[in-house]
Amino acid sequence: MTPIQTQTVNTLKSEGFQVVGDLNDMVLITRGSDNRFVRHDGSQRRAVDVSESNVRVLRGAV
């Protein structure tokens, strides 16, 4: 993880999110039905339909 990605993940963890997976250059985190990817540059994107075999990303950043 990059330093800025780690900082964003730690901030979200303090807000109650949990790390679900580390996918190449993105980290998947979740809190209830709020699923997000944290990209290597620290930006976030919402994810929907999160399961082991299927992850879709909503267009636009959070």
Describe the structure.
With 62 residues, the chain is of the alpha+beta class. It has a single domain (3-51), classed as 2-Layer Sandwich (Metal Transport, Frataxin, Chain A), CATH 3.30.920. It has 1 helix and 5 strands. The chain has a 5-stranded antiparallel β-sheet, with helices on one face. It is globular, with a radius of gyration of 11 Å.
List the helices and strands and how they pair.
Elements: H1 3-14, E1 18-23, E2 26-31, E3 34-38, E4 44-48, E5 56-61
Antiparallel strand pairs: 1-2, 2-3, 3-4, 4-5
Helix content: 10-25%
Indicate the proportion of strand residues: over 45%
Number of domains: 1
Most strands sheet: 5 strands, antiparallel
Task: Report the total helices.
Answer: 1
State the CATH topology: Metal Transport, Frataxin, Chain A
What is the strand arrangement across the widest sheet? 1-2-3-4-5
Shape: globular
Terminal CA distance reads 20 Å
Strand tally:
5
Low-confidence stretches: none
What are the defining features of this structure?
single chain, 62 residues, Metal Transport, Frataxin, Chain A, 5 strands, 19% helix, globular
Task: Briefly say what this structure is.
The chain is an alpha+beta fold and 62 residues long. It is built from one helix and five strands. The mean pLDDT is 82.
